[in-house]
Amino acid sequence: MNHHTISGRILTPQGWVQGRLHHNDRISHIEADPTAAGDQLILPGFIDLHVHGAGGTDIMEGGDAASRVARLHARHGTTTLLGTTMTAPPADIEHALRGLGAVIANQAPDSAQILGVHLEGPFLNCQRLGAQPPPVSTGTLEQVQRWNAIAPIKVLTLAPEIPGHLTLIAQLSAMGIRVQAGHSAGSYEDGVAAIEAGLAGFTHLFNGMSGFSHRSPGMVGAALAHGEFAEIIPDLQHVKPGALRAAMRAIPRLYAVTDATAATSMPDGEYMLGSQRVMKCMGCVRLVLGDSLAGSALTMDQALRNLVDLGLSLEDASARVSRYPAEYLGLQDRGQLAAGLRTDLVVLDTQLQVRRVVIGGHAINLAQGATQDAPVYA
């Protein structure tokens, strides 16, 4: 296999190194050389654990939809993602899972690697649906096992206060599934009980869950007081900067997700999110019928820039889009740049714009699959 070299400022677990990164499908070594040419920034590839769509395509369409979604997100530096489902009748969820399973088994070389599924619904609380459709149900181990046999479920969102779900959390945790609280009307006490049962994280923190107040801390309070991990959408619409900063101080490994929809990298207009009609207008995605936010049009490179604009160091922001999500899933082969790890990386210019993306040692074509609003950097 051919060996390749990339020069510039390399973000390693020990800090920045001016030098050269040597690789094939794995990183062979990082060579420090202060005289190495280039001020480009070489970061670990982004890992997005909550993706519904992009480029006019929604994961729930099934077929090769997931492949098209992964191809577009790769152009924005995402090298690993989870295809995320919506609440729907079982037959519709299974249709989406069959499509995901086929794509996972036969990954396209110019796309982000789809590791598995984030099952968001249908085990939710009807009081906190947000943009989720109404056919919710109580989860059972047998149902999850059937769906997991179609496509590997890595993350599962549920409302822990629903009777029977505490037992389910323990059962799913034993299967290696990371269970998250989301679309939940549960109390602080419900959240603490769920953590004790094996709850691992929280889905789009602050959104779709009982909020925090000093007399009623809610599910948000349980996350802030006890959570080690949680996902958050840093598009600066779902969560305002002050709340983002508070969460980053409280939750040690708070990580970014996009919750991206079919509207991502598309012009303003109407799109589908599962069975829901949504409207993208001025970068914001909302339900057509109602005013609820409905996922986002965010990409991970923009998430990184937003975090830096909030005042985070590039090292800290990078951890929240790469290392922490890798650690959350227990992935030891990615999320950082070090010898022996997968060559999943993104090269940025000094304005933090994407110049190059390498996935499993393969440099992707950034122009291929670009859409109207998607900037291309050759």
Keywords summarizing the entry:
20 strands; disordered C terminus; single chain; 7-stranded mixed β-sheet; 378 residues; alpha/beta; 26% strand; 6-stranded parallel β-sheet; TIM Barrel; 9 helices; 2 domains; Urease, subunit C, domain 1
Give structural notes.
With 378 residues, the protein is α/β, with parallel strands linked by helices. The protein folds into 2 domains: 4-42 and 340-363, Roll (Urease, subunit C, domain 1); 44-329, TIM Barrel (Alpha-Beta Barrel), CATH 3.20.20.140. It contains 9 helices and 20 strands.
| Class per helix and strand makeup | alpha/beta
Note the beta-strand portion: 25-35%
Total of domains: 2
In N-to-C order, the SSE pattern is: EEEEEEEHEHEHEHEHEHEHEEEEHHEEE
Break the fold down into its secondary structure elements and pairings.
Layout: E1 4-12, E2 15-23, E3 27-32, E4 41-44, E5 46-51, E6 53-54, E7 57-58, H1 65-74, E8 78-84, H2 90-105, E9 113-120, H3 141-150, E10 153-158, H4 165-174, E11 178-181, H5 188-197, E12 201-202, H6 218-226, E13 229-232, H7 241-250, E14 253-256, E15 269-273, E16 276-281, E17 284-287, H8 300-309, H9 314-329, E18 345-348, E19 354-359, E20 362-363
Parallel strand pairs: 1-4, 5-8, 8-9, 9-10, 10-11, 11-12, 13-14
Antiparallel strand pairs: 1-2, 2-3, 4-18, 6-7, 15-16, 16-17, 18-19, 19-20
Helix pairs in contact: 5-6, 8-9
